[in-house]
Design brief:
Length: 56
């Protein structure tokens, strides 16, 4: 989906570390991971619903 290389991820991580701070970064990363997982499940559910409706 996104074409992001290692160097871009490293820059994003460093900026996040500076902006958010080392104390809050693990909690923020965990929250973002949780939200990304929920979004993926939601998209998968919508695709399944659409495919089910098409087959009717």
């Amino acid at each position: 989906m996104f074409d992001i290389g290692f160097s871009e991820l490293l820059v994003i991580g460093l900026v996040a570390l500076i902006v958010i701070g080392p104390e809050k970064l693990p909690r923020v990363a965990r929250t973002l991971g949780h939200l990304a997982g929920r979004l993926q499940r939601y998209v998968a559910d919508v695709k399944a619903d659409i495919n089910r409706e098409i087959e009717l």
